[in-house]
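Weekly modeling sync, notes
Attendees: S.R. (lead), two postdocs, one rotation student

Agenda item 3: backlog of single-chain predictions. S.R. asked that every request posted to the team notebook include the full sequence so nobody has to chase files. The rotation student volunteered to paste the first one in as an example of the format we agreed on. Action items at the bottom.

Example entry:
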Amino acid sequence: MKKMMVVVMVMALAGMSVAAEGEATGSIFGARAGYSFSPDQFFFGGHMDMGQVFAPMRLVPNLEIGFGNDLTTVALNGDLIYDFPETAFGVGGELGFVYSSWDDHGLNDIPGVDVDTSDTDVSLSVLGEYRHSLSNGKTMFGQLKFGLSGTADFKVLVGYNF
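Predicted structure, as returned to the notebook:
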C-alpha cells in the first residue's frame, strides 16, 4: 500500500505542475464512470487530459475506484491514446497499478475469522475511444477497454471533460 501512495503522490505532483500551466498545455480535468466484467464492478474516477505529448498522441492519467463482486479496487492508470486525424475516434493502451482488497470469508483455515486480503498488480489494457464535442466547448467520450494483464477483462466507460 505504501508503494501505491508514493505513486499517487508523484502523479498528483506531476498533474499539479501541468495544471499550473493552464490552458497553454491543453490540460483538461474530467470525471469517468463505467462497468467492468471479470471482476463485475461499477467504477468511477477522475482523469486529466494532458494533451498531446507528441502529435497525435495524448496522455491521460486517471484514477478509478471500483466496487462489487466482494472486491474493492483502486487503479492508477496512464492512457496513451492515438487520435485518428479528422475523426472523433482514437485507439491506445493503458499501463497502470491496480490495488485490490477483499474479504476471504473464512478461507484462512481459522473458523469464524474473516481476514482482509489485498494485492497490487501492474495492469495492461488496449482501448478504443469515441469523443464528442459539446456546444458548450466541453467533451464527452466513451471507451471500451480490453484487459491484457492485471486488470478487468473488459470495461465500458463514459466520461466528461470539464
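Discussion: group reviewed the output briefly. Residues 2-16+30-161 form a domain with the Porin fold (CATH 2.40.160.20).
Action items: rotation student to repeat for the remaining queue; S.R. to check formatting next week.
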